[in-house]
């Protein structure tokens, strides 16, 4: 093997290791999201603590992958599709880290919930639907990376619009409950925080779908996909 071929092989291995690290971080964040919502719904404080522990791992993953990208850019001076991939990966791990932050907020809410006040407030189906939809959006966006196939990415954009409507429905219902029964105010405010966190997670999943299109197709759709 020539020196050039040897260097090229190492470079391709570095890119593949990076891709694997991003997908592994994505799987961790997806699990974190599902556990956070379950911990809140089931008032499972042990599970909520686990979500917060995973958050520390996610933060470390973010720093590690950022460092890997910087090193490859500095040493290999990539161009065209490789450079696009590296820039897209940097954006993606930033969105994953923020999803982890939102999942942690939900877990902290589970830890601080006052059960004596929760009994006055009916469980909102729209929040459960929002959580399922946000998790599905994240799964689809990550699948696009894994399969290098963006066919489902635009469905993520449509799902985000649906998620926004579910959030508005949750807000309307919670305000109604608070106006009709002041005993629901404390628990309703908790639910509002959770609903908002889920809505933001959908926005980050949408960003990841945009990144997948940028990496795979070379098209930057951040400000155009809804036009």
Automatic annotation (TrEMBL):
* Any one biological process term the GO annotation gives: negative regulation of phosphate metabolic process
**Is-annotated flag, keyword Coiled coil?**
no
Key word tRNA processing present in the record? no
Gene Ontology cellular-component terms for this entry are:
cytoplasm
What keywords are assigned to this protein? Cytoplasm, Phosphate transport, Transport
**Domain annotation PhoU: ranges:** 22-109, 129-211
Intracellular or extracellular location(s): Cytoplasm
Q: What is the predominant subcellular site recorded for this chain?
A: cytoplasm
Name the Pfam families for this protein. PhoU (PF01895)
Subunit record text: Homodimer.
Chain's role: Plays a role in the regulation of phosphate uptake.
Family, as annotated: Belongs to the PhoU family.
According to UniProt, the name of this protein is Phosphate-specific transport system accessory protein PhoU
The scientific name of the source species is Ephemeroptericola cinctiostellae
List the lineage, top down: Bacteria, Pseudomonadati, Pseudomonadota, Betaproteobacteria, Burkholderiales
């Amino acid at each position: 093997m020539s020196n050039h071929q040897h260097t090229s092989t190492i470079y391709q291995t570095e890119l593949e290791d990076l891709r694997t690290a991003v997908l592994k971080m994505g799987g961790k964040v997806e699990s974190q999201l599902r556990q956070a919502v379950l911990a809140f719904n089931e008032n499972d404080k042990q599970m909520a603590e686990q979500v917060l522990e995973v958050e520390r791992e996610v933060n470390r993953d973010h720093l590690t992958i950022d460092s890997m990208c910087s090193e490859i850019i500095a040493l290999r001076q990539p161009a065209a599709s490789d450079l696009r991939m590296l820039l897209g990966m940097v954006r993606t791990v930033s969105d994953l880290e923020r999803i982890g932050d939102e999942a942690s907020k939900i877990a902290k809410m589970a830890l601080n919930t006052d059960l004596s006040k929760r009994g006055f407030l009916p469980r909102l189906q729209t929040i459960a639907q929002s959580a399922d939809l946000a998790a599905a959006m994240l799964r689809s966006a990550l699948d696009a990376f894994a399969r290098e196939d963006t066919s489902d990415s635009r469905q993520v954009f449509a799902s985000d619009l649906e998620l926004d409507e579910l959030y508005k429905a949750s807000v309307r219902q919670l305000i109604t409950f608070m106006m009709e029964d002041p005993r629901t105010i404390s628990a309703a405010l908790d639910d509002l925080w959770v609903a908002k966190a889920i809505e933001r997670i959908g926005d980050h999943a949408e960003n990841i779908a945009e990144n997948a299109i940028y990496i795979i197709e070379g098209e930057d759709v951040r400000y155009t996909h809804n036009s």
